[in-house]
Amino acid sequence: MGRTRLLPALRMRRSNHCSGRQAPRLLPLPRLRRRIVRTGTIFERSHVPLHKWLYAMYLVVTARKGISSMQMAKEIGVTQKTAWFMLGRLREACGSARELLRGIVEVDETYIGGKERNKHASTKTRPGGGTKGKQAVLGLRERGGRSVAIPVDRTDKATLHEAIESHVEPGSSVYTDEHSSYGGLNRKGFYHGHVNHSRGEFGAGNIHTNSVESMWALLKRGRHLHHCQARTFTGT
């Protein structure tokens, strides 16, 4: 079946001479702004076919350890730069319109950073060790719901309390470990329960931090495969 040809509109101009009319002349019509179903979505101004976007979504949500742009490029048949662009848009879509965590929320902090023996000599922090040269990240896990990871400059009481108040709905139950910086959450409108890991206590009835610690374990296993920076932790 052939293509339907759209004939351009003709506008007639009357001649100034007495001889009648001039030949029809084509005049440019005003360009209309096209609006398609992808406008206003993460697919806008993208030349990647929709079926590849859908395949990329499937890979992102089913890869437990995450997926790199190199791996995605091979899977869906695009360049690495295109896969990087697609991953950025998909992550932005997952991280927008965040709501406060509620119900039972487990909170724990961890430190993200490479091992000293794997670093270049110019980036090694020879003195100290431990958490020196690593990024502190606060994790909040709503049981049966969403998770949030926030990079923090310090792990003192003021910093952690401010982060918890910004992401957890007042009146919720907040479960943590014995870190002293979590003390006083009861006075901030939360029910605070904690377990003492240093004494071998990992659960007291319904009070535990197993879910958020599983989140950290999954993240750190994935870090062996993918590059990770502080700006990655913006919430999920």
- Counted by DSSP, the helix tally is 5
Name the average pLDDT. Answer: 78
Roughly what fraction of the amino acids lie in strands? 5-15%
Shape type: globular
Helix content: 25-40%
Structural class per helix/strand content? alpha/beta
Order of helices and strands: HHHEEEHEEH
Tell how many strands the DSSP assignment holds: 5
Most strands sheet: 5 strands, mixed
Q: For the record, give the distance between the C-alpha atoms at the N and C termini, rounded to a whole number.
A: 49 Å
Strand order of the largest sheet: 3-2-1-4-5
What's the alpha carbon Rg, rounded to whole Å? 28 Å
Uncertain residue ranges: 1-17
Summed up:
This protein is α/β, with parallel strands linked by helices and 236 residues long.
Question: Explain this structure to me?
Answer:
The chain is an alpha/beta fold. 26% of the residues lie in helices and 13% in strands. The protein has five helices and five strands; from the N terminus they run αααβββαββα. The protein has helices spanning 50-62, 69-76, 80-95, 157-167, 210-223, and strands at residues 104-112, 135-142, 147-152, 173-176, 191-194. The chain has a five-stranded mixed β-sheet with strand order 3-2-1-4-5, sandwiched between helices. Helix 2 packs across helix 3 (80-95). The longest helix is centred in the middle third of the chain and has 16 residues, at 80-95. Mean pLDDT is 78; it is low at 1-17.
